[in-house]
Amino acid sequence: MERVVTAAAPDPPETAPAPPPSGLRYRIAFFLVASIVVALVVMLPFAATSLFDDLFHSVASQVFTLAGERAPGAATERSQVHVAVVDLDESRLRVTLRVSGHRVCPAACRSGVRIVLFSVGLDEAATAGMPPSAYVDLTADQAIVSEAVDLPIHGHPTLYPYDVYDLRLGVALGEISASQPVRPLSRPEGQDQLWLTLQEVLPRENIGPPVALVPGESEVAKDPYPLQSLTLLRFTRPVHERVMAVLLVVLVAAAAAYAVFMRPLHDLVLNSGGLVLGVWGIRSLLSPGTASRTLIDLSLSLVILFLLGAITFRALEFLYERGGFRRRRA
What are the tens digits of pLDDT across the range 240-289? Predict the structure, then answer.
């Protein structure tokens, strides 16, 4: 029999191994996330200081003197008035002032006084009429009064929590007597007839030191009420409100980016509803309002901040390994 010799099939040519995936994109993402972590570490001490100050101190600010000064006795008739800022409505750009005052006279008060509060704008010379105002009367028959008045303010609510509101508070005086109508007092006549103090008691706003302005700069010729004083009051948000808003928005945006770029499409579609609700839930923690934050609100905010921060740190570790900064363990 003839032996059949079968030639062995040649070995397949060796193929070059697939190149490892480029780690450039992971390195870029690593440095972006690292910058978020650094900002988190730097900003937290400032937020914690402001937060503890807000929790353990009264919402009432210090008392500022806007006009006049304390006098041990009164040689002439004098009005002493305290203004408390009790509400600030961002949606209507309106501030509520609680005005309480009384008359101090060496004997029986012969006349009364009208205290007019103006919200002076920046373009009074171009507008017709006097600026928005409210008044409180201290008469000879009613020497003690306590009333709430509203005045407009200037600001931009859309910039929350970096919104700033200004009130240019002007004060004028008028003499009330039974024999004639209310007579506005000039600045020389009203000198030493009023001691006016102010205090802010808003739960989610801080007031800066009042800035005294020159009353005559905002007046127009033939204004019926000359201003006795003009003061700029500026209201801002506490530091922890600003820091918490930035941290939560940045961290929830980073968490959304992790879900979009690091999870399979199938998982992303299934969990998109929960992601949207989570993003919208952050808004309920940061939305503006005049109600004071409770300890429960702050605790829940810290829990969410911890959760998002932990996700960020885990993502940083993941990107560190994928970026080739160290070899992954087998």
Answer: 788 878 887 877 777 777 777 766 666 656 566 666 666 666 666 666 55
Domain end (from 237, 269, 292): 237
* Whether residue 124 sits in one domain with residue 204: yes
Rounded CA gap, 299 and 13, in Å?
Answer: 65
Tell me if 307 sits within 8 A of 251, measured CB to CB. Answer: no
Task: Determine, yes or no, domain membership for 9.
Answer: no
Work out the angle at residue 197's Cα, subtended by the Cα atoms of residues 148 and 204, and round it to the nearest 5 degrees.
Answer: 65
Last residue in a domain, options 187, 218, 237: 237
**Residue 11 belongs to a domain:** no
Question: How many residues would you count in the chain?
Answer: 330
Please tell me whether the peptide bond between 181 and the residue prior to it is cis, using omega within 30 degrees of 0: no
- Does this model's pTM top 0.70? yes
The Cα–Cα gap between 325 and 36 comes to: 19
Q: Pick from 90, 56, 224: which is nearest to 160 by CA?
A: 90
Q: Has residue 185 been placed in a domain?
A: yes
| CATH number of residue 208's parent domain | 2.70.170
d(CA 308, CA 198): 42
Which among 291, 283, 98, 68 has a CA at the least distance from the CA of 196? 68
Tokens standing for 313? 């740190």
Find the domain containing 263 and state its range.
Answer: 24-54+240-322
| pLDDT tens, position by position, 76-118 | 778 889 999 999 988 899 999 999 988 887 777 777 889 999 9
The verdict on whether omega for the bond into residue 215 sits within 30 degrees of 0, i.e. cis, is no
